[in-house]
Amino acid sequence: MKVKKAIVFIILAIWVIVNIFPIYFMFTFSLKSNEEIFGANVLGLPKEWLWSNFTTALNTGNMALYFFNSILVTVAAIFISIFAAMMATYAITRIRWRFSKLTNAFFMLGLTIPIQASIVPVYVVLSKLHWLNKYSTLIVPYSAFSLSMAILICTGFMVEIPIALDEAAKIDGCSLYGTFFKIILPLMKPAYSTVGVYSFLQCWNEFMFANVFISDSKHRTLPVGIKALSGQHTTEWGPIGAALVIATFPTLITYIFLSRKIQASFIAGAVKG
């Protein structure tokens, strides 16, 4: 048994190292000079910790603005997708009407449409509406493409809420909107984190829409900003590494603090679905 435990421990330790190494490499990469990056100290800790690389990335590379743009677009898209998914799911699962199943099937079609296939039609629509190079240029498509999965997740939670609660609220004189806001939404809190994490990962890391629909630097997001940085300042790789840390670490920190809640909400949604 001791030998088996030792083998399992060694395998898990190697797996941890394999997963942590890219984070370690990116962080140390961001604090090195070109001489160390391309010299004999590729994998080791920096001999001189160049925290100025982050200052250069934030100022020269304009990463501070891109970081703000990513946060603004992502948060807005998350709130819109959660609220729209809750309303759509409530209408599909709690209200009796003829085309509820057909509407749900229509929403689920969104899961089969890849983002790449929609770039041209979405670009044409945004161009005709003179809606390019704005924050809403990304917020609206991000919310729309997150909606199908959000409805699927919310359905798994909402179908477990007893219909008797709606009927009791109606008897007490609560309107349709009152039932939704006062009864359903508070009971759907576990679904918020699940949909929020999914939408966050979809929006924060998205590159294609942001690269095609946004041509000015004022509304550029982090993934496109890092691409522009690598094209304009290729002689200094330290600031590029710093920009990658700025773009990546918020996701890691968020997951570290919310990992238990996120895992519990995903498991709950899977069981209920």
Describe the 3D structure.
This protein is mainly alpha-helical. It has a domain at 63-220 and 244-272: MetI-like fold (Orthogonal Bundle). The chain is 75% helix and 0% strand. The chain has helices at residues 2-29, 34-37, 52-59, 63-93, 100-108, 119-128, 135-158, 163-171, 176-187, 189-204, 208-213, 222-232, 237-272. α4 (63-93) runs antiparallel to α5 (100-108). The protein starts with a helix and ends with a helix.
Question: Can you lay out the helices and strands and say which pair or pack?
Answer:
Elements: H1 2-29, H2 34-37, H3 52-59, H4 63-93, H5 100-108, H6 119-128, H7 135-158, H8 163-171, H9 176-187, H10 189-204, H11 208-213, H12 222-232, H13 237-272
Helix pairs in contact: 3-13, 4-5, 4-7, 4-10, 7-10, 7-13, 8-9, 10-13, 12-13
CATH superfamily of the domain at 63-220 and 244-272: MetI-like
Mean pLDDT across residues: 83
Order of helices and strands: HHHHHHHHHHHHH
Tell me the distance between the termini. Answer: 39 Å
Sheet with the most strands?
A: none
CATH topology of the domain at 63-220 and 244-272: MetI-like fold
Task: Identify the overall geometry.
Answer: globular
CATH architecture of the domain at 63-220 and 244-272: Orthogonal Bundle
- Beta content: under 5%
Radius of gyration: 23 Å
Structural class: mainly alpha
Q: Indicate the CATH class of the domain at 63-220 and 244-272.
A: Mainly Alpha
| pLDDT < 50 stretches | 269-273
The helicity comes to: over 70%
What's the helix count? Answer: 13
| Strand segment count | 0
